[in-house]
Structure formats: C-alpha cells, structure tokens
Amino acid sequence: MRIVKQAEERKNEILDAADELFRQKGFDATSTNDILEKVGIARGTLYYHFKSKEDIMNALIERYNVRLLSTAQEIAADKDIPINERIISIVMALDISNKGGNGIIDHIHKPQNALMHQKIQKVILSGIVPILTEIICEGIKQGLFDTPFPYECMEMIVAYTNTIFDNDMVEMTKEERALRIQAFIFNVGRLLGAEKGSLTDIMQMFDKKNEDSNK
Fold first, then answer.
1. What is d(CA 41, CA 144) in angstroms, rounded to the nearest whole number?
2. Which of 41, 95, 168, 199 is deepest in the core (most CB within 10 A)?
C-alpha cells in the first residue's frame, strides 16, 4: 500500500535526506537520483516540492537560518544566564565554518556558492544583531556596559566575528587565532564601555571553544 504523506512532512523528509547526503558525499557528488533513492519517492514528487538540487540547497540554508535565529532568541530570553555568557553563546552559535565537515555549511564557502554564503551572512546581520542589542541594552541598565551605540557595536562585532573567525575567509595558525581572540575581547570591552577585566570569562569561553574545535 502506497503511503501518502502531508506535503510539509514529505518536504522535510527530502531536506533531511539531502542534508545527510551533502554531508557524506558533498553537494556536487550528490545526484537527484541519490536523493530519490534515499527517500524512496518518484522524481515527480521531488520536483513537486523543489525545482532543482540548487533549490534544495536554498531550502536547507533557509532552514538553517530559522534554527539559528531560534537558538539566538532562546539564549537571549534566558535571564538565568549571565549577560556576558548569553552574548558569547550567541556569537559562538554563529560559527558557520563547520570545521571538519563537508555538508551544506561547508559547501557554501566554495566560489560558485558565494551568493548562498551572502544570504546566510545577511540573515545573521539583520536577525542576530537586534537580538544581541537587546542584551546589551539590558547590560547598560545594569551598569555593565556604557555605550550610546549598542546596535552599531553589535553590528561591528558580528561582522568581524563572521569574517575573521570564519576558517575559510582568513587562514590563521593556532597562535595567530589566539592573538586575534585576545585583541577581539579587548576591543569588544572598549566598544561596549565595559569595566576592565570584566570580560575575562568571555576569553575563557573562547579558549574552550578553540580547544574543542582542535580535537
């Protein structure tokens, strides 16, 4: 008996299969036949939901963006987490380099997918910066920060983070990365008007992330 599934359920099933295949084989090496075989559907069903393999890639990027914003909003709303920790947790969630993988997020760094990379960066700047700005304003009220430009500060910080700390954009040795992290934390403190030494915990969180990514 043929199983008929709801359109949204079938669409997500296709996306899940494509995401897994892109990670295993890479985007270029994955064919639509591979996707059809993994999901167990007819070609007409695939094309009912997506016009092409590139269309599937775009849908995966959109799904990634939705999850990214949802994660950031969830972190920002948790008042039990200290402000500094909330900020750095959101910034860390922006890591799209996907070091060591060959899936969708890794694939967008290739020249032919520059537009896709740009789409994610645009969502990060337009969606994440306002979320971080609310946290900074909360910190200003508590006397942790002192800046008349909370939005602009966050825009600069996010733009820098997703350019310099993107492994594909700037090649760095372990020592160079550590030095940039020190400079980053130092300048973030000055931008936000934070008390000297108050962002030490952020440095420790960055160091831990570095250690985890190098394992």
1. 56
2. 199
Please give the pLDDT value at position 201: 67
Burial 23-62 (b: 16+ CB within 10 A, else e): beeebeebeeebbbebbebeeeebeebbeebeebbebbbe
Using CA of residue 43, residue 45, residue 50, residue 53, what is the dihedral sign?
Answer: negative
- pTM of structure: 0.73
* Tokens standing for residue 119: 């789409």
pLDDT bin (cut points 50, 70, 90) of residue 209 is low
145 contacts 193 by C-beta, under 8 angstroms? yes
For the chain, give every domain's residue range: 1-50, 53-213
Which residues contact residue 35 at a Cβ distance below 8 angstroms, ignoring those fewer than 6 apart? 14, 17, 18, 21, 46, 53, 56
* Neighbour-count burial of 98, counting CB atoms closer than 10 A to its CB (0-12 exposed, 13-18 middle, 19+ buried): middle
What Rg value do the Cα atoms of the chain yield, rounded?
A: 20
Is the CATH number 1.20.1560.10 carried by domain 1-50? no
CATH number corresponding to 53-213: 1.10.357.10
